[in-house]
Amino acid sequence: MSALSLHKKIEENTGLLIFGILLVSSIGGLVQILPVLNQQSLQIATENTRVYSAVELTGRDIYIREGCSVCHSQQVRPLIAEVERYGPYSRAGEFVYDRPFLWGSKRTGPDLHRVGGKFSNDWHRVHLIDPRSVIAASIMPAYPWLAKREASQVGNITAKLSALRILGHPYSDEDIAAADSELEGLKEIDALIAYLQMLGTGLSEDISI
Amino acid sequence: MDEEDNNLYHDKVVIRLIQFSIIWAVLAMTVGVYISAELIWPSIDFGQFWLSFGRLRPLHTNGIIFGFAVSALMATGFYSVQRTSHAPLYAPRLAWFCCYAWQLTVLLGGLSLLAGWTTSKEYAELEWPFDIVIAVVWVCFGIVFFGTIANRKIKPIYISNWFYGALIIVIAMLHIVNSLAIPVTIGKSYSVYAGAQDAVVQWWYGHNAVGFLLTGGFLGMMYYFLPKHAGRPIWSYRLSVVAFWAFTYSYIWAGPHHLHYSAVPEWVLSLAMIMSVILLAPSWASMINGIMTVSSASEKLKTDPALKFIVLSLAFYGLATFEGPMMSFPSVNVVSHFTDWTIGHVHSGALGWNAMITYGTFYFMVPRLVGVELYSLRLANIHFWMALAGTMLYIIAMWGAGVSQGLLWLSVDEIGELSFSFKDIMSSMTPYYALRLIAGIIFLGGTLLMGYNLFMTLAGKHALKVYAPAVSPAFGVSS
Amino acid sequence: MSSEIYSFLLFKSLYQPTEAFKQLAQVDPSPVGIMLRYSLWLLILPPAFSLIGAANFGWRLGAAEPLMLPTQALLLVSCAYFLILIIGLLSTSIISRWMASTYAASTSLGRHVALITIVGEPLAVASLAHLFPDVLLNIIVLIPTMIWSMFLLYKGIPIVLETTSERGMLMASSLVGWLLVAAVSLLGMSMMFWTLGVGPLLGV
């Protein structure tokens, strides 16, 4: 049967057409994406990478909620200029507890993967509430509401940790039981800063590139 | 009488979808203009969380893709599948359900983005309750569409329907796989994929949502409306067959080129780059097929705004499908990635290709649906030049901004020190952003003109009654 | 074939484009004549302005300090610029003539070269902005000029190539497609050269 007459069959049969499209379009996914999902080396944490604490996880969820990843990447590329500007390039093992990943696709602001420890908590606080009081030319939005809202109201932290435990994050029963009290008295901005300060601290100290 | 009504095309739902599509275009482009102004005057969010850039930008992209583009694809899909099948819509009530359920989903989904419900995965930001509703409506869309094809009176399934079919099937697959997550609360879930793996799945989705929705779906539009306007069959049937399958096969592989120089395995990135380059061939094959179709028919053509928009959209389609593979080369990507060049690239596709071909198609369909002349040819011609000027200005402003960012971020002096601070580079972008704002306003202005023009064309009119024609035995199902 | 056409094109087509299109439709000029006596005089302008500007003020790319290159390098860049413009004009004219066979328009190469030159003339004149080679200033001056040039392209093709406005529109859009692709290829190629080590240092 020639290719054209085979095709005549397909284009005259709704079911065959649907099946053909499904088949042809899934090959790429099966050959290219599935192996990545099974690749163990992408799931091994680097030396200092650990699960997020209740406070850091809440901060990360605020980071997601405010769409920080729209303007800030978290992916230092292995280029001389990037390593110099931001720090050691990003390793797969640093992201094993990131659901979802927050690498971003646009740097309207600088990369944040190695921002942890670079600025003081106070600097972050002032900067988040009024960016232009710190950097006059900044075009970052101000986030005054973060200083007013309670961190415990961001979502059900117990349910969050339990959900992540189902996905394989090593939270103990004690971690989950203590989660509510860890957030007590904290504002959203405290949680966000805690998250920013632990960003990119997953590599062993002697790695400098 | 009954027999006749059984053959009546369902065009009211098409008109309603066109109206919604135009409304979404205006709303989502207005948001786009607003956020481009925020990049110049950051304080115009007035400290309100729901006006904050990080929340409005996903609203802009989702409004354009799911509001404007999908409504337009549903409208043109329903219009063309009836006419190429010589059969009215299968399950017309389900079609109406798709129409309204989709609009409600986009509306509530948009509000949920403002409220901060987001997965942060690009073009898949809507949280799990919306993901489920989207899947349900999408399946209904598929039932109406494939049901109509199954009822067709003509033996072969026309090419445009393959593209719409691929849109429905592949987007369903991508959407379901990428949205798998464990819900925590009504507005929050955690992806079942983590880190680098999540990145690969997300860009497999993100790239192919662009591929099968904004490229493939709109090619379906092109394959029906261009030959229809030219009054002759597609230039090369064989080319369209080859282009379709090559396109469907190769697009899926290209996603990870969004992740160059990241922690994703090297072989995945190389494969994605190679397939991106191969993708150029089927992408351009469809463009050439379209251009040659109108070119070989030019003695019969009437230059109306509809045709001008559709033909020009092919030029920008050619640009975008060439630029994409080029940006997947590591040596170009190293400069362009993370910069406004990407934004420019997206808009050469979204403004130059998607919006323009949709405008052309709307100018073609609306007068025919109600059986009158277009309200104002003059306004439509002005719209054409506004759309062209806006797109050009946008693309070039973003080329300028993107190349400057890419080169300045990377430049080092003789002893290897960085030449410029991030802050200095960023603050030199304001003029480009101002140009982009002007470009956006011009383009939005054109869209408003079209909205006025088409709503005046439709005002007080009813859909013409169009019946499926009797099919000559030579093409009939029973032959 | 009188030589009046050359002087007309050179001196009047900028502000009387329609008249120039009509005149051109009457003749079948030699491509070499058009190149030597019309096009080249315009094509030399942008590289010349760029040379003068860059030598006096340096290239200004956003945040960067003006980039002052030695005269020899600038000469080289200007020569390359001139060469690219000539290649651009010729390739566009040839592609335009190739398309003309599809759109049943005139296939006189001389006319195509002249047409593309008339369309590009506003850009050549607006390249005065190169005298102060600030990227932004150049973009602000050149983009509106470019849109005017595109308008001229759509307007000129049916007149000069003696075809219907429908076909002219199709052909103009096809040419716009070619020009966009050519522009982005140039951009891509220069990025590749840059990242591969030609031009200022990059930390890649």
How would you describe this protein?
The complex is a heterotrimer of chains A (209), B (479) and C (204). Chain A has 209 residues and is mainly alpha-helical. Chain A folds into two domains: 3-38; 45-198, Cytochrome c-like domain (Cytochrome Bc1 Complex, Chain D, domain 2). Helices cover 46% and strands 0% of the residues of chain A. Chain A contains nine helices and no strands. Chain A has helices spanning 3-10, 14-38, 54-65, 80-86, 121-129, 131-134, 157-166, 173-183, 188-198. In chain A, helix 3 crosses helix 9 (188-198), helix 5 (121-129) packs across helix 9 and helix 7 (157-166) runs antiparallel to helix 8. The mean pLDDT of chain A is 94. With 479 residues, chain B is mostly helical. A two-stranded antiparallel ribbon of chain B has the order 1-2. In chain B, strand 1 (181-185) and strand 2 (188-191) form a beta hairpin. In chain B, helix 3 packs parallel to helix 5, helix 4 (92-114) packs antiparallel against helix 5 (128-150) and helix 10 packs antiparallel against helix 12 (340-370). The radius of gyration of chain B is 22 Å and the shape is globular. The termini of chain C are far apart. The longest helix of chain C is centred in the middle third of the chain and has 32 residues, at 71-102. Chain C contains eight helices and no strands. The model of chain C has no long low-confidence stretch (mean pLDDT 88). At the A-B interface, helix 1, helix 2, helix 3, helix 4 and helix 7 of A face helix 3, helix 5, helix 6, strand 1 and strand 2 of B.
**Regarding CATH, which class of the largest domain in chain A?**
Mainly Alpha
Strand content of chain A: under 5%
CATH architecture of the largest domain in chain A, please?
Orthogonal Bundle
Helix content class of chain C:
over 70%
What Rg of chain A do the Cα atoms give? 22 Å
Shape, principal axes of CA atoms of chain A: globular
CATH superfamily grouping of the largest domain in chain A: Cytochrome c-like domain
Instruction: Report how far the terminal alpha carbons of chain C are from each other.
Output: 57 Å
Question: In this structure, how is the largest beta sheet of chain A organized?
Answer: none
Strand/helix succession of chain C: HHHHHHHH
Number of domains of chain A: 2
Please give the count of helices of chain A.
9
Proportion in helices of chain A: 40-55%
Greatest interface and its residue counts? A-B, 84 and 95 residues
Write down the overall geometry of chain C: globular
User: How many β-strand runs of chain A?
Assistant: 0
Largest sheet of chain C: none
Q: Would you identify the regions of chain A where 5 or more consecutive residues have pLDDT less than 50? A: none
Q: Beta fraction of the residues of chain C?
A: under 5%
